[in-house]
Amino acid sequence: MSHQSETVHVDLADRSYDIRIGEGLLDQIGAHCGEVTGTAKRVLIVSDDNVTDHYLERTTQSLEAAGFRVAACVLPAGEGTKSVEFLAKLWEAAVEARLDRKSVMVALGGGVIGDLTGFAAASYLRGVAFMQVPTSLLAMVDSAVGGKTGMNLPQGKNLVGAFHQPSRVLVDLEVLRTLPPRERNAGMAEVIKYGVIWDAEMFAFIEQNVSDIHKLDAESMRYLVKRSCEIKAEVVRRDEREGGVRAILNFGHTLGHAIENVCGYGEWLHGEAIAAGMVYAARLSETLHGFDPAETRRLIELFLAFELPVSWEGLDWNAVFTAMTADKKAENALPRFVLATEIGKAGLPEEVSEAQLKSVFEN
Length: 363
Known about the structure:
The chain is an alpha/beta fold. The protein has helices at about 30-35, 50-65, 85-95, 110-125, 135-145, 180-195, 200-210, 210-215, 220-240, 255-265, 270-290, 295-305, 315-325, 355-360; strands spanning about 5-10, 15-20, 40-50, 70-75, 105-110, 130-135, 150-155, 155-165, 170, 335, 340, 345, 350.
C-alpha cells in the first residue's frame, strides 16, 4: 500500500540522512532499512514492553519480508532503562544476534529507547548503523533527530553519551494514536519550544489549532512534526556538537532537568518538566531581557491547553539549585540559561547569578 511521505534532509556531509514523515511507514521499514544498509542482513530491533505489544510484530514482518534476519531486545519502559545495566543487556543482545559491523540496530520506541540504542550502536564494535523509528511525539520532534545518544547516571541525566547520527529516521504519524494523552501532551512541550526559540508563526499555529491537535488531525500533526524536524535539522546542520547555536534547543531544560532529577525520574514526564522550565526561563527573560510578560502569558495559556504544568510549587530551592549546577551545561558551578527576547527568538546560554535565579524561582 502506498502512502505519501515527506522528507526532511539533515545535511551533515558524510553523516547526512533523511527523516521520512508520513502515515503507514512502519510497514515499509524493510525497504527503508535496505536502502540505508546496503548488503547488511542482520537487524536487532530494540524496543520496550509498552511498544512491542503494538508494533514489534509489524516491524519484524516488514524487515523479514525484505530479507533481514531479525532479533529483538525488549527492555522495560521508563527513564530507568537509560542505565549502565540495560546498556550491558543491549550489548549482550547484539552479540547473541551476531551483529557485525555492517549490521543495523533499529530503535523502535520513545526517547529512552532511541537514546540508549544510539549509544549502544555508537559503542558496539566501535560503531554500527542504527535507524530511529520514534513512537512518541517527543522522540519524533526532538530526541530521534540530531545524533545525541546517551544514558543517565545516578548523579544526573545524559552524563554519558556520544554523538552518533542515525542512518535514517522513520516517523509514522499513525503510531501517535496508541500514545497515552499524557505522553502526547508532554511531547507538545518540545513542539511549543521550537515556536518560542525559532518560529513565531508556528507558535501562533499551535494557539489557533489546539482542538485539532488534540484530535490528532493528520494535516496539523504532519505540519508540526515536519516543521519541528526542519528547525532541529537546521540547528544541527549549523552546530552538530553543540559548540554554539545548538545550545538554544536547551530552552527550559536547565530547570527542567533539575526537576526531573530532584523528583526522581518518571515522576514528571520530560515534557512536563520542560514546560515548567520554560515558564521559569520566560520569567528570567522578563527580568534580564525585557521579554514581554504578555508573551509569558501566551506561553502559560498554551501549556494549560495541553494540561502541562506551569509552576513548581513544593520544590526546594537548594535541592533544585544543586541539581542545576551538576548539569552538564553548567560552567564554573553556575547554571547557564537560554533566554528569549521575544516569541520566535532566543539567545545563547548565559550565566545568571544565584540571587536572580532564586528570586525568580521563589516569586
